[in-house]
Amino acid sequence: MNKKNTIIIAGFAFMLGYFLRQQQSEKQRIKPEKALKAVKDYFQKKYEVSGSWIYMKSEPLQKNGLEYEVYHGGITKHIDSEYVPYEFYVDAYTGTVIDIFPQHPEQVHTNT
């Protein structure tokens, strides 16, 4: 192999490495604490929040035919003089709430 080919291959390898690194950095998960804070901040606009939790490891979730990598957490809202626990799934890359539902289905309220 001559010098010219070596330089071309090295340049290509560098560009490929750079491109793969950019792709990797764009697909970084947000920290679970940041996801939980975003959910709490959103719900505190409408309700009193008395507690919250989140699992530190993400997990796969299928919803409406789509696949997500999510954090699973919970939040307790004060509604109509009651503390009602809800669970949620939040996208691990964007922080978007994918689903939220009462922890105990018998405690369904119409003002969620």
From TrEMBL:
A UniProt-annotated Pfam family: PepSY
Source species, domain of life: Bacteria
Segments forming domain PepSY: 30-100
Name used for this protein in its record: Peptidase M4
